[in-house]
Amino acid sequence: MIEVKDLYKSFGEADILKGISTSFEKGKTNLIIGQSGSGKTVFLKCLLGLFSHERGSISYDGKIYSQLTENQKRDLRAEIGMVFQGSALFDSMTIVENVMFPLRMFTNMSKSEMKDRADLVLKRVNLADAHLKMPSEASGGMQKRAAIARAIVNNPKYLFCDEPNSGLDPNTAIIIDNLIQEITDEYNIVTVINSHDMNSVMEIGEKILFLKDGLKAWEGSKDTIFKTDNKVVTDFVYSSNLFKKVRKMYLEENQ
Amino acid sequence: MNYLHSIGLYFLMIREMFRKPTKWSVMKHLILKDIDDLIIGSLGIVAFIAFFVGGVVTIQTALNISNPLIPKYLVGFATRQSIILEFAPTFISIIMAGKVGSFITSSIGTMRVTEQIDALEVMGINGLNYLVFPKVIALMLYPFAIAIAMFLGIIGGMAACVYGGFTSLEDYITGVQMDFNPFHITYAFIKTYVFAFLLATIPSFHGYYMKGGALEVGKASTTAFVWTSVMIILLNYILTQMLLS
After folding, report:
1. Has residue B140 got a pLDDT over 90?
2. pTM of the predicted structure, to 2 decimals
3. Which residue in A16, A88, A244, B9 is deepest, having the highest Cβ count within 10 Å?
4. Domain limits, chain B
5. Do the beta carbons of residue B73 and residue B205 sit within 8 Å?
6. What is d(CA B16, CA B133) in angstroms, rounded to the nearest whole number?
7. Would an 8 Å CB–CB cutoff place B115 in contact with chain A?
8. Which helix (H) or strand (E) holds B210?
9. What domains are defined for chain A?
10. Residue A85 sits at the chain B interface (C-beta within 8 Å)
11. pLDDT tens per residue, range A60-94
C-alpha cells in the first residue's frame, strides 16, 4: 500500500501540489485524473521519487520514502515498474532486450533464465512474436505492451502508468486497460495510473483520485463517480454529450 | 549567474558520474559499444583529414620558403612540428567536437526527451554512471586516434612533398627526424587526454540536462559543440603555457 500524507510541492513561486493526502491499495487499479495543469504528472513523479517534495510524506508499505537511505531507495526502486506515456523503450535495444534490461541490472540470472522470463512476460502481454523488433519498428500499441512487459518482468510491488492510452486507437486502448487490470489482479500489486481517458476511468477505475489546481477535489470509484454531485468532477468527467447521456441512463436505471 | 550555475552543475555531474556504479557485466558492454561508436567510428574521418591536411601544411610551408639559403629539409621539420604539436591533438579534437560531441549530445538528449533517462532513474539506475562514464572510459583510447592522425599527417605531407616536387624524399625524412624532442609527444598526449575528457563530458552535460523537445536537442548539440571547442582552445593555451614555456 502507498500512503500519501499532506503532500506539498512547488516550483519557485508556483505551488503545484497543495497538501494531498490519499492511499493506494494493493490489488486495485488506482486512477489519478484531472485537467491539464492540475498537478497529476508532478504528483506521479513525486510518488516515483523523481521530484522531491517540500512537505508531507509518501510511504511504501510503511517505509517513509524521504527517510530511506540511498541504498534503501535503490532497493525500493527495483520494486517499482513504470510505464511511461511515450513508452520510453531504449532505442538501441530490441524489444526482448528492453524487457530483459531490469533483470540484467538487478538480478544474477543467467542469460537463458533471463530469456525465459522475458519470453514469459512477452507472451503474457501478447507480444510473443515481436522479440527481435526494434522499438521504432513496433506500433504504438506494441510499444505500450512492451513497456508493460518491461515494467512487470522483475515482479514489481508497485506499477505506475503515465497516460498508458495516449495516442492509441479506442480498441487498443481498451486492450491495454484490461491488460493492466488483469496484471494488477494476477500479481496483486499496487497500480497507479495517471489518465485523461474517461473510458479508462469507467472501465478500470477501482479507485479514482480527482485533482484540481494541486488539491484533491474528489476521491471515489467508477461506481460512485456516476452518483457524485461534485460539480467540479461532473463538469470534467461528463464534459462530452456521450458521457452525459451514459450518466443519465445509469442514474435512471439505478433509481 | 546562469554560467556559474551551469559550471557548478557540470562539476556536480562529474562527481555524480562516479557514484552508484553500474554492474560490471553491463558496463563492459557499454564501454565496448562506446569505443566502437566514438573511436573506431571516427578513425575514417580522422585518417582522411589528417592525411590531406598534412599534405596542405607541407605545400604551404614549401611554397613560403622562397629564400635559397633556407635548407629544403625544413619543410619536413615544419610539417612534423605543426602536426605533432597542434594539428593532430588540437584541430582533430575540434573536428571530433563536431562529430563525436554532437553524437553524444543528440543521443543523450533524445533519451531525455523520450523519457528514457527517467526510466533509468525510476529503476534506481544512476543515469550519469550508465550513460556518461562509459564514454569517458571509451575516450581514454582517443590518443590512439591522435597517434594515427600524427602518423598519417606526416605521411600525407611526405606524399605531397615528393609527388608535388617540392623537395626530395631524403630531405623530407631528414627534416622529420631533425631535432626531435620526445617531450613534444608527451605534451601532445597530455593535451589529448584532457581534450578527450572534455569531449566526453561537455556534450554529455548538454544532452543530459537539456529541457524541451526535438528542436532543443538540435540547439543543445550546437551549444555543446561551441562550448567544447571554446574549452579545447582555452585549455590548449593554458597547457601550452604550462608545459612548453
Report:
1. yes
2. 0.85
3. A88
4. 23-244
5. no
6. 10
7. yes
8. none
9. 2-217 (3.40.50.300)
10. yes
11. 998 998 898 888 888 888 889 999 888 899 998 99
